[in-house]
Automatic annotation (TrEMBL):
NCBIfam families reported for this sequence: Ku_bact
SUBUNIT field: Homodimer. Interacts with LigD.
Protein family per UniProt: Belongs to the prokaryotic Ku family.
Coiled coil: none
Descriptive protein name: Non-homologous end joining protein Ku
Keywords: DNA damage, DNA recombination, DNA repair, DNA-binding
Family annotation (InterPro entries): DNA_bd_Ku70/Ku80 (IPR006164), Prok_Ku (IPR009187), SPOC-like_C_dom_sf (IPR016194)
Signal sequence extent: none
SMART domains registered for this protein in UniProt: Ku78 (SM00559)
Species per Swiss-Prot/TrEMBL record: Sporolactobacillus spathodeae
Amino acid sequence: MRTMWKGSIQFGLVYIPIKLYTATENKDIKLHMLHKDCMAPINYVRTCSKCGKPVGNDEIIKAYEYAPDRYVPISEEELTNLQDEGIKSIEIINFVNLSEIDPIYFEKSYFIGPDSGQGLRAYSLLRQSISDSNKIGLANIIIRSKQHLAAIRSFGNGMLLETLYYPDEVRSINEVPGLADVLAQNEKKELSIATQLIEQLTARFQPDNYKDDYRQKLEALIQSKAAGIKPEQKKGTAAAPNVVDLLAALEASVKEAKPKRKTAPRKKKTS
């Protein structure tokens, strides 16, 4: 597993050398863009929108557009100067309950591993302390020139760091059109049956029960075409029913979700 960040966690006056490793991976299948006639990849060249000339990486600078077609350039040195001296130190600011953080704030997960044998004792102490307290630590961290709010929690026999969005990065749900009259739409009987349906569909979360059906189908299609097997033509799918009676649809859903009773085998009569 490749290290993607190296630094330390500051826990009071204790510094714990750590390394971060990406905890998740994107398994989307990458499809290339080809020229239809030549079946060769398409090249994309960076060109200037004004003069039309190709531009190399050494000729590109960063800038902010503060008005239409008006830019203020920002150098890499200026960006570096904005960062705190403790760029490679994660200082735990507070400890909070995990249940107090809405999932909308979570962004990306990283495994926290110890960086050296000398820091193993402090690493183990912090992990055990966080686990016993049922709390998570909140800290700031800079990853790839961007500051993140981060949650540090125990995970298995190690720790996990999860970057969070700052409050001003989370949009207000009040911006969603059409929500003003939502609460006035609920009928008591419909709500009761909907609650019953939720109870029938409730199960313990087991990650292995869920899979990416689309990716598996795409992988099978690629393997078939690579082997020269012509894919089967998919039959037309039936259109989704236009449900007018919400109550009837809920009742039918509850009936469909009911587990089938297992009938006990009949005992043979003995003479």
